[in-house]
Sequence to fold (274 residues):
Amino acid sequence: MNVLSKKSAFCFLCCLSALASAAQTSRVTLPSPPESVAYQRTQLTTIDLSPTNKLSQYVHYDFSPLWLTTSNEAVLGFIGPGYQRLRLKMLTAQRDKVDPTRYRVTGKSQVLGHISAFSGVIIIRQVRELRVLATRIEETVSPARQEGILLADYELREDASQPKSGVFRGIMKTDWYLDKQGKLLYDNIRTTGDGFCNNQFVGTWTSYTTRKALRCNWGDYRIPNSGDFDRGAGEFSPSPKYYANGWDYFAAIYGGNEAARARAEQKEKKVWWK
Fold:
């Protein structure tokens, strides 16, 4: 074998090794907190869902746009036992070219005015279809040909060089639907219904320095597993006893005068992640 052939063979073996390594990495199960595991179990046992995991049938769809579509003021989150407000903005999401169940994501988080950049992965584990498809939603013909959910592991690592940084880990759920033409879309069909929510993240945030883990959940329009914090029936409404923990916007909305409400609205819609 000449030198050129040896180099070609070596490059070929390196490529195979890289592909094998990527495939092995994608199969790694990220450590999920107990609350996340319990949440996933509850979702999978609901009677509305088909019992069959149809991940292989949906793996060719790109789910990333579903995580980038919601306006940031509608993304609500908390961290810690006092339900301190967490704001989180997903900025990019890109499907892996080797493993289409794996997505690389970037974004920023904000707690108590401190902003951290993060990057990480979302790995889809389950795709389930609804057993029965609604044909009409509030007197309107449903646009869906099929509806369902996905369940995924996530790990989002904040920049370790930044102070007060750590890693978010857990399990997330996204509701999706296929329209009549077969296009995959964010499921907002029932936005006017009580308790509407989507992109529900259940997990923890663990400090790099102290290794202490705090409960940390967020989602679109509602926050999963929020206990006595969210007292709203039709829509999100934090308990007044938690207003001081970053939820003063809602104090102004529900109890302030017109000027206070206007200031709160302006603050809430501020583009804090740029």
Q: What stands out?
A: The radius of gyration is 21 Å. Residues 27-227 form one domain. The first helix runs from residue 3 to 27. Residues 9-27 have pLDDT under 50 and may be disordered.
